[in-house]
Amino acid sequence: MSRAAVAKHVAALRHLGYGIDARPGEGYRLLAVPDLPLPEEVAPLLTSRLWTRLEGGGPTGSTNDDAKALARAGAPEGLAVLASAQTRGRGRLGRRWESPPGGVYVSVLLRPQMSPADVPPLALAVALGVARGVERFGVSPTLKWPNDVLTDGDKLAGVLLETAAEADRAEWVVAGVGLNVRPAGARVAHAAYLEDHARSSVPLAAAAAAMLDGVAEAYERYLGAGFPGIRDAYESRSALSGREVVVRDAAGDVTSSGRVAGVDGSGRLVLEGPGGRVATTAGEVTLREEGADRT
Ligand code: BT5
Fold first, then answer.
1. Residue 290 confidence class, pLDDT cut points 50, 70, 90
2. Helix, strand or coil for residue 205?
3. pLDDT value, residue 56
4. How far, in Å, CA of 120 to CA of 172, rounded?
5. Interval between CA 63 and ligand 1 midpoint (Å)
6. pLDDT by residue (tens digit) across 164-216?
7. CB of 89 closer than 6 A to ligand 1?
8. Ligand 1 test: best mutation among 55, 63, 96, 97, most atoms within 8 Å of CB?
9. Is the CB of 101 under 6 A from ligand 1?
10. What residues does 161 pair with on adjacent strands?
11. pLDDT (0 to 100) of residue 274
């Protein structure tokens, strides 16, 4: 490599936030690595082979939008778009996902060979994967059906699944995860932060890699054995088991209520109510003993 080429790469790395000392006649010295989920930092930490292409790492609008554009352009399964902050982070049903610096925002592109009906439980698999991934930092998250990862009842991470399907086959699935690692300034209401519960500080690249490895493992188990393959792992972390809950639809109307008996082999939430057992495929769950404003 020519000197000019090296200088160009060094300039690009400095632009990303790397601290690099240059001494004429001696060479370069790496002084500081930016605390960002940059592909260059995340890739060496990954153990899963699923993630073959990492993109982004800085601020963006929404990693789900970025990944969806790449999905439509034909990108293969195994793409992951990373961001350090988002200006248009989205939750489900048009809700906002607060995405300040100090969090990790990731969207992965999956192309599972499955019918569209088998796609929604993937949100549970992804949430489980995130929980298992961050357990390596000494945290023990719980799962709130369908897509929340909690610690002490507050939301550590959320999952947003978006998909395109043909009549009998999913074409692509973009699974977006927002994970709060540490607060940057004001705390988000009812948010939990990984570093508040971890053994030590967590670099954002390490958080991203843990999440990606966890998601890959849960996804592969779901592909291999369906929801029954991850059901025990999901149930053992469920924050809802045995709790009295109310389920509402997108319009806010109550669709069912009762005591949570568990999650069935299709990933549905099973409630025991006055009229017997009811399985729910979608909805917003609120604990009865909490205020209705808690998610
Ligand atoms: C979710 O929605 O939990 C899915 C969040 C997915 C975000 C990721 S980030 C990467 C990718 N790119 C995107 O644009 N999105 C995905 P939902 O279940 O609808 O929860 C949304 C609710 O969570 C909001 O209405 C708030 O009450 C709360 N909330 C917003 N930001 C939060 C945060 N940072 N931490 C905890 N709770 C938050």
1. low
2. helix
3. 97
4. 12
5. 12
6. 999 899 999 999 999 999 999 899 999 999 999 999 999 999 999 999 999 99
7. yes
8. 97
9. no
10. 175
11. 86
Structure tokens at 206: 């390490």
Ligand 1 pocket residue status of 102, Cβ below 6 Å: no
**pLDDT score of 289 more than 90:** no
Q: Which two tokens stand for residue 115?
A: 């019918």
Contact call for residues 246 and 254 (beta carbons, < 8 A): yes
Residue type, 228: P
CA distance 215 to 200: 22
Q: Is the CB of 63 under 6 A from ligand 1?
A: yes
Nearest partner of 231 among 244, 246, 241, 242, judged by Cα? 241
CA distance 44 to 166: 36
- Quick one: which H or E segment has residue 86? strand 85-86
pLDDT band, residue 288 (cuts 50/70/90): confident
In 114-237, where does DSSP find H-type helix? 121-134, 194-197, 204-225, 228-235
Tell if the pTM clears 0.90, that is, is over it: yes
Tell me, using a 6 A CB cutoff, whether residue 105 lines ligand 1. yes
pLDDT of 292 over the 80 cut: no
Strand ranges of the sheet holding 142-144, from the earlier edge strand across to the other edge:
53-56, 79-83, 103-110, 170-180, 154-165, 148-151, 142-144
